[in-house]
Amino acid sequence: MENAVLTPESGTAAARTRKKRLRSVQGWCWLFIAPNLIFYAMFQGWPIVINWYYALHDWSGLSSDIQYVGLQNFKDIIHDMYFWKAYANSFKFMLGSVPLLLLLALFIALVLNNPKLRGATVYRTLYFIPVVTTASIVGIIMVYIWGSDGAVNFLLTSAGILKTPVNWLGDANWAMFTVIIIYVWKNLGMNMIYWLAGLQTVPRELYEAARVDGANSLRTFIYITVPQIAPIGLVILLLNIAGSLKVFDLIKTMTEGGPFYATDVVSTYIYRYAFSSEMGLPRMGYASAAGIFFAFTIVLIAILQAWINGRINKSGKGGRIS
Amino acid sequence: MSTVRVKSFGSRAKSIPGMLLHVLLIAIAFIWIYPFLWMISASFKSQDEFFSKGLSLIPSSLDFSNFARAWDAGHFDRYFLNSIVITTAVILIVLFITSTCGYALGRYAFKGKRLVVTVLAASMFVPLEFSIIPIFELIKRLGLMNSLSGIILAESGGGHIVFVLLFAGFFRQVPKELEEAAIMDGCGFLRTFIHIMLPLSKPIVGSAVIMQFIWTWNSFLLPLVLTLSNPDLRTLAVGLYALRGENIVDWTGIAAGGTIALVPIIVVFLLLQRYFVDGMAGAVKG
Q1: Residues B189-243 pLDDT 10s
Q2: Which chain A residues contact residue B190 at CB under 8 A?
Q3: In chain B, where are the structural domains located?
Q4: Are residue A81 and residue A37 in the same domain, yes or no?
Q5: Which residue of A has its CA nearest to B253?
Q6: Per the domain annotation, does A103 fall within a domain?
Q7: Exposed (0-12), middle (13-18) or buried (19+): which is A101, by Cβ within 10 Å?
Q8: How far apart are CA A83 and CA A77, in angstroms?
Q9: Distance (Å, rounded) from C-alpha A26 to C-alpha B226?
Q10: What CATH number belongs to B74-246?
Q11: Where in the sequence is the domain holding A8, given as residue range(s)?
């Protein structure tokens, strides 16, 4: 319908409609961005603002029951040894899982990146399956598999490594180790894909040049591959640090933070105070304060990492300021 | 790439290190999928068989009573439906809000664009446990605590920066001629988007659909918290946790519930994995 009006227009009229169109484009752009921004504001922006309000109040979740307490929640947190236990556990979990995850995934990615390897796509698919499955359900299944009748104990006792079955998730000495191993198992595939994406950015000519120069595969890896994939490696590291610090589903379903708080991390700690009935009345304000406290730590790590990142870039590229 | 592989058929497998490598890779693959094999086989075992041969991976008979028990007594019929309704609705909402946002950001220069990108990107650093209490309160205040729409809204929230960037990157590359032709034909901003641009972006839509499907289907903390007062709204991810809380020793029933929850997502992944893997790889490269 409209093209009948538009096509026979003269030059100046076309320029005018063009101008009008440009102005309306601005409006359309904002209209197109608005839905996403509204969802963002409701579920990401608003929580950041209102969390501070909650953190300054003693509050069980019922609106009539709210009382201003100033910084008391923060003071309580600093004096709660269970919070510090959960805080330390979060970092133990991160330090235990991230290096293992990155190195194992890099190794697998290097092997699978060989175009001559038969069945590489099949291996890739199989290693990736745990990533797409529901963590809370996998956690429950793992309770049996790592339990006293499960496959892990069967394997280790029949191989003679263990004399009696170990209660992996129920033993306070082993629970953190077990949770870390299961987390690594669950997320290896994703990191493998990240590394493979990184390896595929390395130009083939570089490898060929190295081969011509007579470099063996170890030297090629150290002098060609590592510097080329280092920038993506930093992104992967950051993603993993953030991911491991917010682990919840696996721990909640496998150990509930136990035994004796051995696997209690900040997310399960917050959940216990805000939503669980085992602590009596919920303490929403206190839990919010714990969240803020922990989020600050994460932001600090992000800043530190950005700073390190900047320094590496600087030293690597001859003082270029990025 | 596949032709290269076919050509080198046999050349590598003959060498002993090559054989050992494959043995290692197969062993890892077995460990990686063993829990699922165990779960599926346990869900077909009778209680007696489970206690005598709990570790065997091939059940002696196909006993469907575990599925019936999980489906009826465990309320997995309802949880399954809830999971499907929530996941479908969230995918549609997220597709709508991210494709429009990515289109405007990728294709047009307008005032405040930089700010929008920065604000959206900042969301990557906000962990869910930090915002879970405010989201819980927000849904309660909106009066959506006792309906699936509360969970759907909350699950659709967030910045979706990955999808927005994928869409923006795609729409940026579409040649200008296409758009000019559409304008000549009298398409306005909206119609150009719906009739010309959106159909072109099928690969991104595919990645977004499968990634969001997997995230929403697997989501645990949000539905857990939002269904605390109303078990009828539970999703599969929350349902199995609840089932185990009620009946700690019924492992064949738990395995059947796990199979009901996980098999759909594994099948969807196997069918559409290209989209998912491309999306993930694009996210880290971008």
Answers
A1: 888 888 888 888 888 898 889 889 999 999 999 999 999 888 999 999 999 998 8
A2: 28
A3: 2-66, 74-246
A4: no
A5: A141
A6: yes
A7: buried
A8: 6
A9: 38
A10: 1.10.3720.10
A11: 1-41
